[in-house]
Amino acid sequence: MDEPLDVSLVRLIADPERFRGRLVRVIGYLVFEFEGNALYLHGDDALFSISANALAVEATQDMRERRTSLGGYALLEAAFDPDVTGHRGVFSSGGLVRVRRCQSWPPECLRRPLPADAKPGAATGSP
Hints:
By secondary structure, this protein is an alpha/beta fold. It has a single domain (5-108), classed as CATH 2.40.50. The chain is 16% helix and 30% strand. α1 (9-14) links the parallel β1 and β2 (23-31). Mean pLDDT is 84; it is low at 123-127.
């Protein structure tokens, strides 16, 4: 079995031809919507439907069945196809097809509690 290439969503969006047909491992904000399954760069991009910051996702039956537990940040391993642009071509940089792995991110063992004053979705760290 081929080992996936760890790549950022930014690199896939910026240079889709470079990754054509490659098996990739990528992390992003996963959204399941009618005619719009996608992996977004950030949760705010999904909230405001900024499709330029997303890739289409051809969800597997297993993903559709688990969608309530998968929404939010996720790690996907899939083949990248710049010609798969979703319904009406809304995801112009391409899509993730033949998904072989999809899991919530980070895994439970790596999750850290947010500081008490942090707002969900907001950046944390030093000002």
